Every structure is written in structure tokens, then in C-alpha cells.
Amino acid sequence: MASPSATDIVTLTAHCHCKSNVFSITVPESALPLCSPICQCATCRHVTGSSLHTTVIVPLSQCIALPVISATNLVQYKTSDNLTRQFCGTCGADVYYLAPNAWVLCTGVLDSIAPGQLSRSLIYVEDSGDGGAAAYLPTYKSYCGSSSGRDAHGPVTDIAMLGYKSQAKMKAKAGVPSRGKLQCRCHCGGVEFYISRKKPIDDVSETGLTVHKRRCTYCPCETCRRCSGFELTGWFGVPQDDIFWHDGSAIQFDKGTLKTYESTPGVVCREFCGVCGAKVFYRREAGVIDVMAGLVETDSRAEEWLKWEADDDFAQAALDLPFFREISDGIIKWNLDIQSG
Ligand SMILES: [Zn+2]
Ligand SMILES: [Zn+2]
Ligand SMILES: [Zn+2]
Question: Domain limits at 125?
């Protein structure tokens, strides 16, 4: 059989932020679009810190040649018999995973995504507890799946989505209790902390949707995606003195399994778990810490605590601008829907 000509092939190239890990993989154009799940399961959230776990699956049978990999610092973390995750030991980015019969590439480290290359769908939506990102991407195919029910992988029904919406309406109306803790942890448990509700931020949305909730947005910028491995990184900001280590002590950045990477030396520090690879904090301004939204131990959007909003500031940096626009528009629409009635 003749090998495909250069015009019939597509090469996906990628590197993590610190460039310790670089790879490229080539498939025939006939393999497109490649399956690109956005996993909403609790494991993916806690092992990455990302609530939008975007990967692309390249079946081994579709690879034209072995991938070209220059990986000088990959840390492995196995979350099941069938999946070994690999993240950069220096910058923390999830890079690619080893699965039976496939390469699973984290889309945030890709150099480009062309229109039509990926076929995106949401999986394990049931595990999110609140519909997760399916709330913002209603036109995408969404599948249930839950860590407890291996057979329940059918499509998420309209009735289920209506249920998620009515839950969200109640959370939107509810005031923030004056006391309480938002627990956060990584998958391996080496990073465990909580956010206190004792000093709520007076952060009234222009929509009037919620008060005293912490603003949470997806950042599409290249640094966030190459440091996380995922295209859109959900962050919420918290005053540093509202964050406590699990034992109640003040937060410190050399505790537990935290590792620090300076993505802009002397200006921006990012922490991740050195064991499981969860991305955890972003620090630039003194006294304020951004926290990865996927670490919350509540339902995935944590709407009792967080107010998700669209943020266009870095839109032009998005790897896949139409995808970023869809999710931003989805957030705006969801917020309007849960505010009405
Ligand atoms: Zn790296
Ligand atoms: Zn998952
Ligand atoms: Zn960990």
C-alpha cells in the first residue's frame, strides 16, 4: 500500500511551556476529524485542576509513523489500569497520556488547531453533579458516564439538563452563607486546602445575578494553556488571607506536594502538585491568589461559591477561537437563563 503523499497528511505539533517536552504526531487527512472528548469526570478535574479537560485521541492504527517525541521531563501518574497520565515535572503541563491503542494528547499544548480537525463532545457529564460544561455547550453531544455506573454512558437527556438548570436557579437565588468552607484538593491528596467564606468579596455582577460570589472565568491565553495542558483554564481569585491549608494554617507555597514554576520569571508564579500534576495556583499580584476551579470538592461549577462569567480579554490568544466564543456565549446565555424565573 502506498504511503499517503505530503498533501494528504496532517501533523500535530506540541510543546509544554518550558519546552522540556516536545512532540509531533502525523495522521492521514482521512482520519479527521479526530475524537476530542471534554471530560467532566471528577478524576480529570482533581488530577489536573481543569474543569475543561480537553484531549484529542489519536488511535495507534491511524499514526503514519511513530510520534516524534523529545521528552526530557515527564512525570507519570496512573489513574486507572488503562490510563497513565504524563505531565511536565518543570512547568506542570499535562502533555500526553498512554492508553491502550491510542495516544491521548492534551489539546492545550498543541501549536494549532485547524477548523474541522477535532470532533468535540462532552463525556462523564453525570460525574459533574451539575451538568458541568454541558450547561455552556448545549449544542455539543454530551454523554452521561459516571465513576459509579460503568454502563451509563448514554446521551445526557433534555430532562437531565432541565434538572441541572433548576438546581442552578436555586443556587443563583441563594445568598452566600456567612460561614463555610470551599474545600479543594488534588487527586493524590498532597495538596489540600480550603477557602473561607468569612470574608466574602463584595463582587456584585453587572447582571445582578449573584453577590459575594467569587468571579470565575476561563483564560484562553497561551501561557495558561501551555502551563496546564488544556485550552481554557478556569480560575477564580481569592484574597490570600482567605485561603488555608487543610489543617487551618496559613497557606504557604512549599507545603505538601506543591511545586512552583515561574512562568514569567520574577513576576508570575504558578503552583502544581509534583505527584499527580494538578495545577493549583497562579500568583502575580501581592495578596491575591487565583485558584484552579477544577479542584473544588463540590459540584463542578461550584455555583454556591463561584460566579462564572465570560471574559473576552485574551480572546485573540485562543487556540480555537470559535470554541472559545461558543463557551463564552454559552456562559452568558446560561447566566441569563438561570436568572430568569
Ligand atoms: Zn514543561
Ligand atoms: Zn475524565
Ligand atoms: Zn496531587
Answer: 6-160
Transcribe 55-121 into DSSP letters: EEEEEGGG-SS--EEEESSEEEEEEETTEEEEEETTT--B-EEEETTEEEEEGGGBS---TTSEEEE
ipTM for the assembly: 0.95
Residue spans of alpha helices (H) in 174-221: none
- Please tell me the distance from the alpha carbon of residue 160 to that of residue 234, in angstroms, as a whole number: 24
Q: Which ligand is nearest to the CA of 277?
A: 3
Q: Which ligand is closest to the CA of 278, given by its number? A: 3
Over residues 224-275, the pLDDT tens digits come to 999 999 999 999 999 998 999 999 999 999 999 999 999 999 999 999 999 9
**pLDDT digits 0-9 by tens, 94-116:** 999 999 999 999 999 999 999 99
Please give the distance, rounded to the nearest whole angstrom, from the Cα atom of residue 229 to the centre of ligand 1. 10
CATH number, domain at 91? 2.170.150.70
Whether residue 44 lies inside any domain: the answer is yes
CA of 88 to the centre of ligand 3 (A): 14
Q: How far is the CA of 209 from the centre of ligand 2 (A)?
A: 30
Question: Nearest ligand, CA of residue 226?
Answer: 1
Ligand closest in space to the Cα of 49: 3
In a domain, 168, yes or no: no
Looking at all shown ligands, the one closest to residue 87's CA atom is 1
Q: Which three cell numbers stand for residue 294?
A: 477544577
C-alpha of residue 220 to centroid of ligand 1, in Å: 18
Ligand 3 centre to CA of 341 (Å) is 41
In the chain, the number of structural domains is 2
Is the domain of 133 the same as that of 184? no
- Locate 131 and state its grid cell: 451538568
Residue 292 Cα to ligand 3 midpoint, Å, equals 13
Is 178 inside any structural domain? yes
